[in-house]
Amino acid sequence: MQDFHVTRAQALLEHAQEIVTPSQVQAAVGQVADVLNERFKAPGAGFPLVLGVMGGAVVFTGTLLPQLDFPLEFDYIHVSRYGDDDRGGQVVWKVIPRQNVAGRTIVVLDDILDEGETLAHVKQRLLDMGAAEVIIAVFADKDIGRNKPIVADIVGLTLPNAFVVGFGMDVYGYWRNLPGLWAISPQDLKPAEPELEYPVPDAKAS
Ligand SMILES: O=P(O)(O)OC[C@H]1O[C@H](OP(=O)(O)OP(=O)(O)O)[C@H](O)[C@@H]1O
Ligand SMILES: Nc1nc2[nH]cnc2c(=O)[nH]1
């Protein structure tokens, strides 16, 4: 069983292409830190609650936090839309915000803004809970060639429209630990579900 995972993980990486080197990754995180430090350096800029969106943001969050030089409070939320798949589905909350967010400035950290469904949902939930301001900072924004339901306030780097792994991002649970970013070969992604030609009859009717 363990051999199966090792072989599968290695095969996925063998066909993948490195698109962002580890040093480019670090430079992008540094840029996000600079923008946040500038934003919160002024006296009276506030005491933000920084929320990392687990699990993908774990590496981005851990790399960024020590580069922030202003007083902050940290916690995490856990939301998933992809699970172990390479396509998004419903947004599933695993850990909701535990700190009181009412009246606070919240900085949300996530690894990637892809179709934007996850962060649009997160932002709306925080605003519904009374957050005064929600600043969205993402390590990467994917260029998907169409409008998204949310725009990030701070972006480390922009990625081409490919399924990427590394720096916290996984493919089928593998390779969150890579220090650079790799584009998975389309041949290794699951084929799309075929469109149904006929509607499935409702089992409860009849
Ligand atoms: O913009 P979207 O299309 O909504 O996708 C972006 C989300 O997808 C990833 O999470 P995922 O659901 O894969 O969970 P994970 O963080 O545990 O990997 C990533 O961490 C973002 O939160
Ligand atoms: N690993 C990974 N997770 C994602 N979630 C949304 N887009 C992506 C992606 O390109 N890679």
Short summary of the structure?
One of its GO terms (cellular component) is cytosol. This is Hypoxanthine-guanine phosphoribosyltransferase. This protein is an alpha/beta fold and 206 residues long.
Provide an overview of this structure.
It contains 4 helices and 9 strands, in the order H-E-H-E-H-E-E-E-H-E-E-E-E. The longest helix is centred in the N-terminal third of the chain and has 18 residues. Helices cover 24% and strands 25% of the residues. It holds the Pfam family Pribosyltran. GO terms for molecular function: hypoxanthine phosphoribosyltransferase activity; magnesium ion binding.
Which key terms come to mind for this protein?
Rossmann fold, binds 1-O-pyrophosphono-5-O-phosphono-alpha-D-ribofuranose, binds guanine, three-stranded antiparallel β-sheet, 4 helices, six-stranded mixed β-sheet, alpha/beta, single chain, 9 strands, about 210 residues
What does the radius of gyration come to?
A: 19 Å
Major sheet: 6 strands, mixed
| CATH C-level name | Alpha Beta
Topology, number of strands: 9
**Beta-strand content bin:** 25-35%
Percentage of residues assigned to helices: 10-25%
CATH architecture: 3-Layer(aba) Sandwich
Terminal Cα span: 44 Å
Give the overall shape. Answer: globular
**In total, how many domains does the architecture comprise?**
1
Instruction: Identify the strand order in the major beta sheet.
Output: 4-3-2-5-6-7
Helix-strand sequence: HEHEHEEEHEEEE
Number of helices: 4
Q: Which cofactor or ligand species appear? A: 1-O-pyrophosphono-5-O-phosphono-alpha-D-ribofuranose, guanine
Going by helix content, strand content and strand pairing, the class is alpha/beta
Kindly report the average pLDDT value.
Answer: 93
Q: Determine the CATH topology.
A: Rossmann fold
Uncertain runs are: none
